[in-house]
Amino acid sequence: MSEFDFLSGIDDVPPTPILIAPQPVLREVAREVRPEDIAFIRDQLPGMFSAMYKAPGIGLAAPQVGLGMRFALVDVAEEDAPREPMLLINPEIVTEAEQMAAREEGCLSLPNQYAEVVRPESIRVRYRNLAGETIERDASGLLATCIQHEMDHLDGILFVDHLSTLKRNIIMRRLAKEQKLGRR
Length: 184
Hints:
Elements: H1 38-54, E1 59-61, E2 71-74, E3 86-96, E4 100-107, E5 110-120, E6 122-128, E7 134-140, H2 141-154, H3 165-180
Antiparallel strand pairs: 1-2, 2-3, 3-6, 4-5, 6-7
């Protein structure tokens, strides 16, 4: 049995609600996942993957659904390609490239807001899976960006925090206006 067997019926799973900035939990540092948390996380995964895929998005961190724990989902597979889900529990970046890359980012907690963010082009990330095994994986390009973006959420950081104050304020005002108008 794979840790992602539930994905075969994911289209029928109700999505977990995604919190929209400026929800306070999005600015909190998430706590480490402990062994006793694994059953709870396993129960949360179908709704979280459903939310991520239906949004549609390529990553979702636990704080974005109100869970203050250090885990995140990532799947950067193309829309028509087979899914490539990843669950990163207690992730940490082991190494990062000196070479930086700019990529347009958005966020499910800041819907319809996008900006170019500069991050390391490639990384090596260490994390645990549901079985408690430690995994190290090299990532570059979109996958590296997505992992770094989701790991930022675990530290209470939003992608707009990588922008100038002016750009950040413009995006946050635009988001507030759209939310006031009832758009998502």
